[in-house]
Amino acid sequence: MRVRGRLSWGRRARVGAALAALLTGVVPPTVMLTPGAAGAAAAGATVCEIRDDRLSEISGMVATDDGYVVVNDGADNEARRRIFFLDDRCAVRRAVSYPSRPRDTEDLAVGRDGTVWVADIGDNDRTRETIGLWRLAPGADQPVLYRMTYPDRPHDAEAMLLDAADRPLIITKGGSGTVFLYAPTTALKADAATPLALVGQVALPSTTTSNPYSFVGRSVITGGATAPDGRRVALRSYADAFEYDVPDGDLVAALTTGTPRIVALPDEPQGESITYSRDGRSLLTVSESASQPPGTRPTILRYPASAAPTPQAAESTTAAAPSTSTPGSPTAQVAGIGVGRVWPLAAGAGTLLALVAVGGVLWRRHTLRR
């Protein structure tokens, strides 16, 4: 999703944050920061600059053995609607087109067999009847579309993870500090829309990391990544990465009951992409450049992945939502949700009221488009 308009919300954003705290009466959870994340967070180290003009709205990225795979979001320019394969110096070496126009591609992941999954899940206006996944098998010339439907209502989402069995997990974007997890109830089929089930929810930790969108930028999820060994996953906001351990392969349980470690990603222009390096030691990010000054190029940045959890880390404050899956279904196998401490739902509702209270001022100056 590309954001246009004035990027610094300044005092009005701080007023909104204070109002949210008053309405909720809840102090958001705190977690152990990775070394260097506290105080003045360090900027990422430059890996390489992407100089292809077609790649100005990058919304998803994954590292491969010989480079990277990236996608733009729902680009108006037809030449930008591709799955781009880059070498390790960020030069485009291959671009794969879609057989039909995607709606809003926001994230991607690579399965264990090298299959590329592109998440066509963006929905700024929350009006889509279906969302989609594009599956590009190794060596294929074009991806295949698989449609899915939410069980409740349309959601805007920008992050996707694959579990140990390569089943997709969709993470909504949120906005009030709480995001929802959805998984398919059956195997995906190219000729049918697969129902999704709500399998959990996650309350994001509170941080103070500087970013162009103030407190709102710290309360949404814009991308996801899985470590090469599958034992860690990361969700990112416009400000931070939240890294969770997945010791037993149960992805939903890790997100809904685990305590994340925070890696600050300070002041990225519009960070929507994240991936682990192939050795698992680093987190790599890239921002959109379309709303930046002319000549600005998207640049892949490297941050050290977080260290192992420490005994001083705070207890989890995430909460699991009841699963709507049936016993034996893929969703039931994915779920395995344990119950942690509940961050009261009033927190999300109060923050939403705060956003509404200042929304007339804030969003009048911000135009969103795919």
Describe the structure.
The protein is mainly beta and 370 residues long. It has one domain: Tachylectin-2, Chain A (5 Propeller). Helix content is 14%, strand content 34%. The protein is built from 5 helices and 22 strands. It has helices at residues 10-24, 214-217, 251-257, 330-335, 345-362; strands at 2-5, 45-49, 58-64, 67-72, 82-87, 92-97, 105-110, 116-120, 131-136, 144-149, 157-162, 168-172, 178-184, 193-203, 223-226, 232-236, 240-245, 261-264, 271-276, 282-287, 299-304, 366-369. The strands form 5 sheets. It has an 8-stranded mixed beta sheet with strand order 7-8-9-10-14-13-12-11. Strand 3 (58-64) and strand 4 (67-72) form a beta hairpin. Helix 1 (10-24) runs antiparallel to helix 5 (345-362). The radius of gyration is 19 Å and the shape is globular. It starts with a strand and ends with a strand. 51% of the residues are buried. Mean pLDDT is 79; it is low at 2-39 and 309-370.
SSE map:
Blueprint (H helix, E strand, L loop, with lengths): L1 E4 L4 H15 L20 E5 L8 E7 L2 E6 L9 E6 L4 E6 L7 E6 L5 E5 L10 E6 L7 E6 L7 E6 L5 E5 L5 E7 L8 E11 L10 H4 L5 E4 L5 E5 L3 E6 L5 H7 L3 E4 L6 E6 L5 E6 L11 E6 L25 H6 L9 H18 L3 E4 L1
Parallel strand pairs: 10-14
Antiparallel strand pairs: 1-22, 2-21, 3-4, 4-5, 5-6, 7-8, 8-9, 9-10, 11-12, 12-13, 13-14, 15-16, 16-17, 17-18, 19-20, 20-21
Helix pairs in contact: 1-5
